[in-house]
Amino acid sequence: MKFWIGVTDNKWFEFLSARSPDEVNFWRPSGLGSFQAVPTDSLFLFKLHSPHNFIAGGGFFIKHSNVPLSLAWEAFGEKTEPLH
Length: 84
Known about the structure:
Blueprint: E1 3-8, H1 10-19, E2 25-27, E3 43-48, E4 55-60, H2 69-76, E5 80-82
Parallel strand pairs: 1-3, 2-5
Antiparallel strand pairs: 3-4
């Protein structure tokens, strides 16, 4: 089985965990080009930064879209996080 791991911020993970969202959306600052690193429907795991260094959750990668940051925040609010 193939899977991908993204490193996520510890405080952001705690923030989202307290809210139990139905989905989480990630973005990257460049916003240019297409994100093709992870195939659709692939298992995507979330690892916490040091000092925790463990897998804290996971989900399935569904889709990549290039949208302005303001639109991402308007659509997803606090369920969006930058990739590090």
